[in-house]
Amino acid sequence: MKNLLFAFITITLFGCYSKNKEHAAAVSKKPVYLSAEIYSLMQNLDYQTQQTKSYDPSYIQLDYPNGDVNIQTGVCADVIVRAFRANKIDLQKEIHEDMSRHFSVYPDKWNLSKPDKNIDHRRVPNIMTFFERKQKAVSLTNIAADYLPGDVIAWMLPNNLYHIGIVSNEKDELGVPVIIHNIGSGTKKANVLFAWKIIGHYRWFQ
Question: Do 143 and 26 contact (CB within 8 A), yes or no?
Fold first, then answer.
């Protein structure tokens, strides 16, 4: 009984994770094998944490394809776009081409009448729609082990703002994967997987 009480108290002390004790369930302690693609993602994400130190949602005219804002800044979606380019997948180009062919199936949130290659790929709802159309969506659960390195996660923040990040190959003390994201102060690693409501879970790389 004392051991059970101690385990309960330990989990409770970890803030947002205390609401879902199953987060720590079924977590493997074995080393995680990383494919070449996932390894490239992780290398790029580590680079971003060293370079991207600020957040700037300003509309900027970009090159096309492979356009990007200055590496020192960006938004949450830029973390995803930059990481995917490490595997020669240009989400700016892919999303723009898909929106050009199927504009009506994408969210109508910005009063646009046609695609805009400068900003479409930098908007979370568009990334979510693109991943869903490519059948990359996987189940939303409260089980930490279901979230693998390289998975893309979308959240709805308390103020009804969309947010997005990537699962890293690191875990916290409870075995919950650490997220790499930019929520306002640059690209960082943080224990936020279950901090907000998950509304999207996507797995492009195996």
Answer: yes
What are the beta bridge partners of residue 126?
Answer: none
* Whole-structure pTM value: 0.85
DSSP-derived secondary structure letter, 34: -
pLDDT digits (tens, 9 = 90+) for 114-128: 999 999 999 999 999
Q: Which long-range contacts (CB under 8 A, 24 or more apart) does 173-176 make?
A: 173/14, 174/11, 174/14, 174/17, 174/23, 174/24, 174/27, 174/144, 175/24, 175/27, 175/28, 175/29, 175/144, 175/145, 176/17, 176/23, 176/24, 176/27, 176/144
The class level of CATH for 2-202 reads: alpha beta
The full set of domain ranges for the chain reads 2-202
Buried b (16+ CB within 10 A) or exposed e, 133-160: eeebeeeeeeebbebbbbbbbbbeeeee
Q: State pLDDT tens for residues 54-75.
A: 999 999 999 999 999 999 999 9
